[in-house]
Amino acid sequence: MKNIKNKMQKIEIKDPASRFDLSYVFANDYPVFSKTKTALQEMAEVACEIVPGVHCRTAIVHPGEIKELVSLLKGSLVRSEVVIDFPDGSGGAITKEAQARFAASAGAIGADLVINLHKVKARDKKGLMEEFLAVTRNIKETKVIGQVPYLWQYDKNSVPWLLEILAEAGVYCLKDWTTRVDNFLLPENETLDYSDDTRFRYLEYIANYIDKHSLPIILKVAGRVSPLNVRSFVNAGATLIGLSYRKAAALRHALLK
Protein backbone atom coordinates (compact mmCIF):
# COMPACT_ATOMS: atom_id res chain seq x y z
CA MET A 1 0.00 0.00 0.00
CA LYS A 2 1.30 3.46 -0.90
CA ASN A 3 0.70 7.13 -0.29
CA ILE A 4 -1.77 6.92 2.59
CA LYS A 5 -3.29 10.38 2.72
CA ASN A 6 -5.03 10.47 6.07
CA LYS A 7 -4.58 9.44 9.66
CA MET A 8 -7.17 7.42 11.55
CA GLN A 9 -9.98 9.74 12.53
CA LYS A 10 -10.70 9.44 16.23
CA ILE A 11 -14.40 9.55 17.04
CA GLU A 12 -14.92 10.42 20.69
CA ILE A 13 -17.92 8.48 21.98
CA LYS A 14 -19.27 10.56 24.86
CA ASP A 15 -22.77 9.15 24.42
CA PRO A 16 -24.35 6.58 22.08
CA ALA A 17 -25.63 9.52 20.03
CA SER A 18 -22.00 10.38 19.25
CA ARG A 19 -22.18 7.45 16.80
CA PHE A 20 -25.35 8.56 15.05
CA ASP A 21 -25.48 9.83 11.48
CA LEU A 22 -29.13 10.76 11.08
CA SER A 23 -30.47 10.53 7.55
CA TYR A 24 -33.10 12.27 5.54
CA VAL A 25 -32.73 10.48 2.22
CA PHE A 26 -35.79 8.27 2.31
CA ALA A 27 -38.80 8.70 0.04
CA ASN A 28 -41.45 8.69 2.77
CA ASP A 29 -40.58 12.16 4.02
CA TYR A 30 -43.58 12.70 6.25
CA PRO A 31 -43.12 14.27 9.70
CA VAL A 32 -43.91 12.04 12.67
CA PHE A 33 -43.61 14.27 15.72
CA SER A 34 -45.40 17.42 14.61
CA LYS A 35 -48.17 18.55 12.29
CA THR A 36 -46.60 21.94 11.71
CA LYS A 37 -42.99 21.03 10.90
CA THR A 38 -41.38 19.27 7.97
CA ALA A 39 -39.48 16.02 8.33
CA LEU A 40 -36.25 17.90 7.66
CA GLN A 41 -37.00 20.31 10.49
CA GLU A 42 -37.81 17.39 12.77
CA MET A 43 -34.54 15.67 11.93
CA ALA A 44 -32.57 18.82 12.67
CA GLU A 45 -34.27 19.14 16.06
CA VAL A 46 -33.56 15.51 16.98
CA ALA A 47 -29.97 15.90 15.81
CA CYS A 48 -29.45 18.98 17.96
CA GLU A 49 -31.08 17.53 21.06
CA ILE A 50 -31.99 13.86 21.04
CA VAL A 51 -32.48 14.27 24.79
CA PRO A 52 -31.79 17.43 26.80
CA GLY A 53 -28.09 18.25 26.61
CA VAL A 54 -27.20 15.50 24.10
CA HIS A 55 -26.74 15.95 20.35
CA CYS A 56 -26.17 13.47 17.54
CA ARG A 57 -23.00 13.46 15.47
CA THR A 58 -24.36 14.21 12.02
CA ALA A 59 -27.41 14.90 9.87
CA ILE A 60 -27.25 13.87 6.22
CA VAL A 61 -29.37 15.01 3.26
CA HIS A 62 -29.41 15.07 -0.53
CA PRO A 63 -27.49 17.95 -2.19
CA GLY A 64 -30.73 19.79 -2.92
CA GLU A 65 -31.46 20.16 0.80
CA ILE A 66 -27.99 20.89 2.15
CA LYS A 67 -28.45 24.67 2.26
CA GLU A 68 -31.57 24.32 4.38
CA LEU A 69 -29.92 21.76 6.65
CA VAL A 70 -26.90 24.01 7.23
CA SER A 71 -29.27 26.83 8.15
CA LEU A 72 -31.26 24.64 10.53
CA LEU A 73 -28.12 23.39 12.29
CA LYS A 74 -26.40 26.77 12.51
CA GLY A 75 -24.93 27.34 15.97
CA SER A 76 -25.14 23.65 16.93
CA LEU A 77 -22.41 21.03 17.25
CA VAL A 78 -24.08 18.75 14.68
CA ARG A 79 -22.24 18.11 11.43
CA SER A 80 -24.05 18.96 8.17
CA GLU A 81 -23.32 16.27 5.61
CA VAL A 82 -24.54 15.17 2.19
CA VAL A 83 -24.94 12.02 0.11
CA ILE A 84 -23.14 12.08 -3.24
CA ASP A 85 -24.29 10.26 -6.41
CA PHE A 86 -26.98 8.52 -4.37
CA PRO A 87 -28.27 5.85 -4.65
CA ASP A 88 -26.56 4.00 -7.54
CA GLY A 89 -23.12 5.65 -7.73
CA SER A 90 -23.01 5.49 -11.52
CA GLY A 91 -22.82 9.21 -12.30
CA GLY A 92 -19.06 9.23 -12.72
CA ALA A 93 -16.48 11.73 -11.50
CA ILE A 94 -18.28 14.64 -13.18
CA THR A 95 -21.48 14.09 -11.18
CA LYS A 96 -19.64 13.39 -7.96
CA GLU A 97 -17.46 16.49 -8.23
CA ALA A 98 -20.34 18.79 -9.17
CA GLN A 99 -22.41 17.63 -6.21
CA ALA A 100 -19.46 17.78 -3.82
CA ARG A 101 -18.46 21.27 -4.93
CA PHE A 102 -22.02 22.54 -4.56
CA ALA A 103 -22.44 20.92 -1.14
CA ALA A 104 -19.13 22.30 0.11
CA SER A 105 -20.09 25.81 -1.01
CA ALA A 106 -23.34 25.43 0.93
CA GLY A 107 -21.49 24.49 4.12
CA ALA A 108 -21.35 20.68 4.11
CA ILE A 109 -18.40 19.37 6.10
CA GLY A 110 -18.77 15.69 5.27
CA ALA A 111 -20.06 13.40 2.53
CA ASP A 112 -21.22 9.83 1.98
CA LEU A 113 -20.44 8.99 -1.65
CA VAL A 114 -21.84 5.91 -3.35
CA ILE A 115 -19.28 3.66 -4.98
CA ASN A 116 -19.39 2.81 -8.68
CA LEU A 117 -19.80 -0.96 -8.65
CA HIS A 118 -18.99 -1.21 -12.36
CA LYS A 119 -15.50 0.11 -11.65
CA VAL A 120 -15.06 -2.31 -8.76
CA LYS A 121 -16.07 -5.23 -10.97
CA ALA A 122 -13.56 -4.13 -13.61
CA ARG A 123 -10.86 -3.56 -10.96
CA ASP A 124 -10.55 -0.05 -12.36
CA LYS A 125 -8.44 1.50 -9.64
CA LYS A 126 -7.70 4.60 -11.69
CA GLY A 127 -11.40 5.22 -12.30
CA LEU A 128 -12.30 4.72 -8.64
CA MET A 129 -9.50 7.01 -7.49
CA GLU A 130 -10.70 9.68 -9.90
CA GLU A 131 -14.22 9.50 -8.45
CA PHE A 132 -13.07 9.43 -4.82
CA LEU A 133 -10.69 12.35 -5.30
CA ALA A 134 -13.40 14.32 -7.10
CA VAL A 135 -15.18 14.37 -3.75
CA THR A 136 -12.31 14.48 -1.25
CA ARG A 137 -10.70 17.52 -2.85
CA ASN A 138 -13.94 19.40 -2.17
CA ILE A 139 -15.07 17.73 1.06
CA LYS A 140 -12.14 16.32 2.99
CA GLU A 141 -14.10 14.18 5.43
CA THR A 142 -15.59 11.63 3.07
CA LYS A 143 -17.11 8.20 3.63
CA VAL A 144 -17.67 5.70 0.83
CA ILE A 145 -20.83 3.61 0.68
CA GLY A 146 -19.29 0.36 -0.50
CA GLN A 147 -22.35 -1.82 -1.20
CA VAL A 148 -20.62 -4.49 0.86
CA PRO A 149 -23.50 -7.03 1.00
CA TYR A 150 -23.26 -7.33 -2.79
CA LEU A 151 -19.46 -7.52 -2.85
CA TRP A 152 -19.39 -10.02 0.02
CA GLN A 153 -21.79 -12.33 -1.81
CA TYR A 154 -20.52 -12.02 -5.37
CA ASP A 155 -17.00 -10.52 -5.31
CA LYS A 156 -15.47 -11.07 -1.89
CA ASN A 157 -11.92 -10.68 -3.20
CA SER A 158 -12.68 -7.08 -4.04
CA VAL A 159 -13.14 -6.11 -0.39
CA PRO A 160 -9.45 -5.95 0.69
CA TRP A 161 -8.55 -4.46 -2.70
CA LEU A 162 -11.10 -1.71 -2.13
CA LEU A 163 -9.96 -1.02 1.44
CA GLU A 164 -6.44 -0.28 0.25
CA ILE A 165 -7.76 2.15 -2.37
CA LEU A 166 -9.97 3.94 0.16
CA ALA A 167 -6.97 4.52 2.40
CA GLU A 168 -4.86 5.75 -0.50
CA ALA A 169 -7.61 8.16 -1.60
CA GLY A 170 -7.94 9.71 1.85
CA VAL A 171 -11.39 8.25 2.56
CA TYR A 172 -11.74 7.86 6.31
CA CYS A 173 -14.80 5.61 6.57
CA LEU A 174 -16.44 2.69 4.78
CA LYS A 175 -20.22 2.53 5.11
CA ASP A 176 -21.65 -0.85 4.25
CA TRP A 177 -24.55 -0.03 1.92
CA THR A 178 -27.39 2.21 0.78
CA THR A 179 -30.10 -0.35 1.75
CA ARG A 180 -31.52 -0.09 -1.79
CA VAL A 181 -31.62 -3.74 -2.89
CA ASP A 182 -32.80 -2.81 -6.38
CA ASN A 183 -29.45 -1.09 -7.02
CA PHE A 184 -27.81 -4.41 -7.76
CA LEU A 185 -27.90 -6.46 -10.95
CA LEU A 186 -28.43 -9.78 -9.22
CA PRO A 187 -28.23 -13.04 -11.16
CA GLU A 188 -31.64 -14.33 -12.19
CA ASN A 189 -33.65 -15.93 -9.37
CA GLU A 190 -31.09 -14.92 -6.73
CA THR A 191 -31.56 -12.64 -3.74
CA LEU A 192 -29.10 -10.54 -1.80
CA ASP A 193 -28.16 -11.80 1.65
CA TYR A 194 -28.18 -8.84 4.01
CA SER A 195 -29.14 -10.79 7.13
CA ASP A 196 -27.74 -9.65 10.45
CA ASP A 197 -25.42 -12.66 10.72
CA THR A 198 -23.94 -12.00 7.29
CA ARG A 199 -23.40 -8.35 8.11
CA PHE A 200 -21.75 -9.21 11.41
CA ARG A 201 -19.38 -11.57 9.57
CA TYR A 202 -18.30 -9.06 6.97
CA LEU A 203 -17.90 -6.30 9.55
CA GLU A 204 -15.64 -8.52 11.64
CA TYR A 205 -13.63 -9.51 8.55
CA ILE A 206 -13.19 -5.89 7.47
CA ALA A 207 -12.38 -4.68 10.99
CA ASN A 208 -9.73 -7.38 11.33
CA TYR A 209 -8.22 -6.49 7.95
CA ILE A 210 -8.11 -2.81 8.86
CA ASP A 211 -6.43 -3.61 12.17
CA LYS A 212 -3.93 -6.06 10.67
CA HIS A 213 -2.89 -3.63 7.92
CA SER A 214 -3.09 -0.47 10.05
CA LEU A 215 -5.46 1.27 7.65
CA PRO A 216 -6.84 4.67 8.76
CA ILE A 217 -10.46 3.64 8.16
CA ILE A 218 -13.45 3.33 10.46
CA LEU A 219 -16.70 1.48 9.73
CA LYS A 220 -20.29 2.62 9.50
CA VAL A 221 -23.43 0.51 9.19
CA ALA A 222 -26.80 1.74 8.02
CA GLY A 223 -30.16 0.26 7.20
CA ARG A 224 -32.13 -2.29 9.18
CA VAL A 225 -30.39 -1.30 12.40
CA SER A 226 -32.78 -1.80 15.31
CA PRO A 227 -32.75 -1.73 19.11
CA LEU A 228 -32.35 -5.51 18.97
CA ASN A 229 -29.20 -5.61 16.84
CA VAL A 230 -27.46 -2.25 17.26
CA ARG A 231 -25.20 -3.45 20.07
CA SER A 232 -24.09 -6.43 17.97
CA PHE A 233 -23.18 -4.13 15.07
CA VAL A 234 -21.00 -2.07 17.39
CA ASN A 235 -19.40 -5.21 18.82
CA ALA A 236 -18.66 -6.43 15.28
CA GLY A 237 -16.65 -3.31 14.51
CA ALA A 238 -18.98 -0.47 13.53
CA THR A 239 -18.03 2.93 14.93
CA LEU A 240 -20.80 4.94 13.25
CA ILE A 241 -24.49 4.10 12.89
CA GLY A 242 -26.59 5.47 10.07
CA LEU A 243 -30.27 5.64 10.92
CA SER A 244 -33.52 7.46 10.42
CA TYR A 245 -34.04 10.23 12.94
CA ARG A 246 -37.32 8.50 13.79
CA LYS A 247 -35.42 5.61 15.42
CA ALA A 248 -32.71 7.65 17.12
CA ALA A 249 -34.16 7.72 20.63
CA ALA A 250 -34.88 3.98 20.63
CA LEU A 251 -31.38 3.06 19.42
CA ARG A 252 -29.75 5.37 21.92
CA HIS A 253 -31.77 3.75 24.71
CA ALA A 254 -30.70 0.28 23.53
CA LEU A 255 -27.01 1.25 23.58
CA LEU A 256 -27.30 2.68 27.07
CA LYS A 257 -28.39 -0.65 28.51
Report what the structure shows.
- One of its GO terms (biological process) is carbohydrate catabolic process.
- This is Deoxyribose-phosphate aldolase.
- Keywords: Cytoplasm, Schiff base.
- There is one protein chain.
- The chain is an alpha/beta fold and 257 residues long.
- The chain has one domain (16-256): Alpha-Beta Barrel (TIM Barrel).
- It has helices at 39-48, 66-73, 92-106, 117-121, 125-136, 148-154, 158-169, 196-212, 230-236, 248-256; strands at 20-24, 58-61, 79-84, 110-114, 141-145, 173-175, 218-222, 240-244.
- The longest helix has 17 residues, at 196-212.
- It starts with 19 loop residues before the first strand and ends with a helix.
List keywords for this structure.
257 residues; alpha/beta; TIM Barrel; eight-stranded parallel beta barrel; 10 helices; 8 strands; schiff base
Which bin fits the share of residues in helices? 25-40%
CA-based shape: globular
Radius of gyration: 17 Å
CATH topology: TIM Barrel
List the helices and strands and how they pair.
Blueprint: E1 20-24, H1 39-48, E2 58-61, H2 66-73, E3 79-84, H3 92-106, E4 110-114, H4 117-121, H5 125-136, E5 141-145, H6 148-154, H7 158-169, E6 173-175, H8 196-212, E7 218-222, H9 230-236, E8 240-244, H10 248-256
Parallel strand pairs: 1-2, 1-8, 2-3, 3-4, 4-5, 5-6, 6-7, 7-8
Helix pairs in contact: 3-5, 5-7
InterPro entries: Aldolase_TIM, DeoC, DeoC/FbaB/LacD_aldolase
GO molecular function: deoxyribose-phosphate aldolase activity
Protein name: Deoxyribose-phosphate aldolase
